[in-house]
Amino acid sequence: MKEFELIKRFFAEPGVTRKDVEMGIGDDAAIIDVPDNSHLIVTTDTLVQGVHFFADMSPRALGHKAVAVNLSDIAAMGGDPTWISLSVTLPTADEQWVKEFSAGIFEICEYYNVQVVGGDTTQGPLTVTVSAKGLVPKGKALMRGGAQPGDWIYVTGTLGDAGVAIDAIKNDKQLPLLHEKFIIDRFEFPTPRVAIAQSLREVANSAIDISDGLISDLGHVLEASNCGAIVNVDQLPLSEALTESLDEHLHYDFALTSGDDYELLFTVPEDKRGALDVTMAHYGVQLTCIGQIQGQTGKLELRKDNEPFEFEGRGFQHFSKDS
Amino acid sequence: MKEFELIKRFFAEPGVTRKDVEMGIGDDAAIIDVPDNSHLIVTTDTLVQGVHFFADMSPRALGHKAVAVNLSDIAAMGGDPTWISLSVTLPTADEQWVKEFSAGIFEICEYYNVQVVGGDTTQGPLTVTVSAKGLVPKGKALMRGGAQPGDWIYVTGTLGDAGVAIDAIKNDKQLPLLHEKFIIDRFEFPTPRVAIAQSLREVANSAIDISDGLISDLGHVLEASNCGAIVNVDQLPLSEALTESLDEHLHYDFALTSGDDYELLFTVPEDKRGALDVTMAHYGVQLTCIGQIQGQTGKLELRKDNEPFEFEGRGFQHFSKDS
Predict the structure, then answer these.
(1) Are A30 and B23 in contact (CB < 8 Å)?
(2) CA pair distance B207, B156, nearest whole angstrom
(3) Given CB atoms, is B1 within the 8 Å cutoff of chain A?
(4) pLDDT tens digit string along B155-176?
(5) CB pairs under 8 A between A and B
(6) What ipTM score was computed for the predicted complex, to two decimals?
(7) CA distances from B36 to A36, A133, B33, B115 (A)
(8) Which residues on chain B are in Cβ contact (under 8 Å) with A34?
(9) Which end of chain B has less neighbouring CB within 10 Å, N or C?
(10) Could you report the per-residue pLDDT of B141-155, keeping only the tens digit for each?
């Protein structure tokens, strides 16, 4: 276990040092000063090899992704991420692996000013658990259950790209050379929508991040909010990389059901749409209105060219469903 | 993965419901109200099958222990545990297993008024990660680095019992029938010293929990505090179960080097010893003064009958060192 002691020391390097951390790594636990006007946000996600990532994923991507999926949850609450704890279980203490893995961790933490305040390294099958914390002004958190009939449904970025990557890797498909890096990066280096969370909490009624797929995650919002929705599939934001990588009949399928994009889905009432446009203009994040919340509880209506859109949803296989 | 959805719903039962939890399980993240006068304490520990627990450990014990080791870290900071997040990776979705495991989780959480605010269940090799949070009045946290020369060194409970259990299980040794349950429970159902943490923060200069063994954990205190120490081995608190289960020449060995007892080690200045005795009297927790902090940095002197005690420390094999 001597090697694991070395790894522990490796992670003890804090990277970002925040003023609100009274004691970081190095004691039984971390001590943190939470501002009086804020609520604490807490989330945890585990990535298991073979379930959430392929065995040949680079350690740097794994480090990035383990943090990104947690920061995405914080952003989906309208919060600002602040601290993470990290638990890594490793089969062997491979110094090069650990170096690249922690580079992935520290890069994203530095970008978002997040401090690693605790960690645990153990020997065993490769598993990474990150517990992320964040802050949101009291009463401003965005819940899944806040959507109101009439709210407009927005998503950030483009949908389905990570699904194309999973499909290509699993089924050994060749992606168009021009788009390969973009598509794989969308799966391995997702961008948590942290930057816009601060503005979003002023205008949105509800929010969720798209980790399981649009239909599934919008379903969580509808269930928690006791609402229904209309989604116009011809308004779904598709990347050129997706449209040029998939047969046309699969475009909507992937955009509607593939997960792992970690884009945000949120709902905005009519009277806040102006404010949304103004505050979002300078972020450079693509925003698309894809539909509207309706009163009919639980009913999700898909439309294309204002006609009902029949959808079978069999094109995309979820990574975790059959691995 | 349908079964895993069921498990998620199983854990969604909150058990304890605390008023400071604005949103528990059921959204992207939990929202928590941290009192203005408190610092937040954060810790994470992972238990891996074959590394931290034996494959035949009962799921109830595993649930208990995964929470207990984290609450012990909170107590070692002088804090009160409040919320946990739970990540469980399971090979199969065995409903009976999950039922017993979560009974273990919820029993200890109920006892200490701790709410499960988040969780993640995934398929893979058996691993449990708990991230526990707690509160401590601002400025009152007990650090490893606070020991002062002259401080008296105390430990709670008895030392080495969990080590006897590990030794017996690993080497298939028969324990005395009278003591078997006590010894095994000390390993599988450790008691985090949460109850005394509140009083301890008023009298102690430093604290740590004994997870790696007395010598190792006292070493962390001495290193962080730039101090040395004298420990009188004939004052080490030994249970009757330990002394009747081990050959005499192994008693001190186990008490000094075996881990997993999750007792607290703390240091108290001379002028606070009276207050310690008064406030601790009604807790019913055994407290033993085993030595004193000295000025010589890093030097740990073991004594028996006031003579130097020679110690080779080869009797106890750590669970994790050769598994």
Answers:
(1) no
(2) 11
(3) yes
(4) 999 999 999 999 999 999 999 9
(5) 199
(6) 0.87
(7) 5, 17, 9, 20
(8) 34, 39-40
(9) C
(10) 999 999 999 999 999
